[in-house]
User: Which sequence fits this backbone?
């Protein structure tokens, strides 16, 4: 009998955190799991750790490849996965022991395409400005125990969008039938992938438990002082993402499908507008963006500024 859940873990230079991650999957109360770890050209002890675990646990597959990026690693995992369900786990984070069992039970009982859940971020030797422990709590957007058919799910997701594929379990055939894969060669690839997943979800639920433990570590992308070169690379990737998301608009014809796509374009554009890159370069790149008119650009920025003004005014009024 094939495994019910395939857990895909891309691995790159995480020797200090990898065992905690792997132990959290091996220690799941639910046992019908295969672990697919893709070593993406690690130069530390991560490959040796993976081989050691593979020799001890027969339900673990290890794939070694040259450094190709997290998208290629996850796509390789999708290709070899045999489970009915698939779950993506980052190798410096971990999950609680009852995570997979509870999620699979909800998926099976309610015939779901996908189930989302919450996460608890924690600091590990890092300093992070405005650290928000409730960042991955989506209870204000979704009701616990409610089964969301497509229209209701899209409506809730417009406000409660989360790009992280680590915060949902989904049916593998949703990816296979719709030919969904991570876009290679860019940063922030989760934005596009998760949007496509949500657009193709017909039946979903939300579990508010913080099953996922998200590590904010010193030196990670989330917490490190990034060079201007990396900031520019991030900016360029977001520009590419806006164009890729815009290409989805003529493909999806539903009203709420298009509203979700437009909301993501708006969110990505606002992020670009406030990126700390050269002003002339920013202006040129923003002018080249597809799927967003000059009027929309003005409206998006002005409405965002007004919203922030109102929020700040209310906050100051309460203090």
Assistant:
């Amino acid at each position: 009998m094939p495994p019910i859940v395939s857990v895909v873990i891309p691995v790159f230079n995480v020797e200090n955190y990898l065992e905690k991650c792997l132990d959290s999957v091996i220690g799941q109360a639910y046992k019908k799991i295969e672990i697919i770890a893709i070593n993406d050209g690690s130069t530390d002890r991560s490959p040796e750790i993976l081989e050691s675990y593979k020799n001890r646990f027969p339900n673990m597959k290890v794939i070694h490849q040259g450094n190709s990026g997290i998208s290629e690693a996850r796509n390789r995992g999708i290709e070899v996965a045999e489970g009915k369900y698939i779950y993506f786990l980052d190798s410096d984070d971990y999950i609680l022991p009852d995570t997979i069992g509870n999620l699979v039970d909800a998926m099976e009982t309610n015939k779901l395409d996908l189930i989302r859940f919450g996460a608890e971020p924690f600091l590990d030797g890092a300093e992070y400005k405005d650290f928000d422990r409730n960042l991955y709590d989506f209870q204000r957007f979704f009701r616990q125990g409610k089964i969301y058919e497509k229209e209701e799910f899209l409506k809730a997701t417009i406000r409660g969008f989360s790009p992280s594929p680590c915060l949902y379990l989904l049916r593998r055939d949703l990816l296979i039938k719709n030919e969904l894969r991570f876009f290679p060669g860019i940063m922030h690839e989760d934005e596009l992938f998760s949007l496509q997943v949500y657009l193709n979800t017909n039946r979903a639920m939300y579990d508010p438990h913080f099953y996922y433990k998200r590590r904010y570590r010193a030196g990670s992308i989330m917490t490190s002082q990034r060079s201007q070169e990396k900031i520019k690379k991030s900016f360029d990737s977001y520009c590419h993402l806006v164009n890729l998301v815009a290409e989805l608009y003529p493909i999806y014809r539903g009203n709420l499908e298009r509203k979700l796509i437009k909301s993501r374009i708006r969110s990505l554009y606002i992020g670009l507008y406030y990126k700390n890159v050269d002003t002339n370069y920013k202006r040129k790149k923003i002018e080249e963006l597809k799927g967003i008119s000059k009027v929309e650009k003005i409206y998006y920025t002005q409405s965002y500024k007004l919203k922030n003004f109102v929020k700040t005014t209310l906050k100051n009024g309460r203090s």
In short: Residues 294-318 form the longest helix (25 residues). Residues 228-318 form one domain. Residues 41 and 66 are 4 Å apart (CA to CA). Residues 221-225 have pLDDT under 50 and may be disordered.
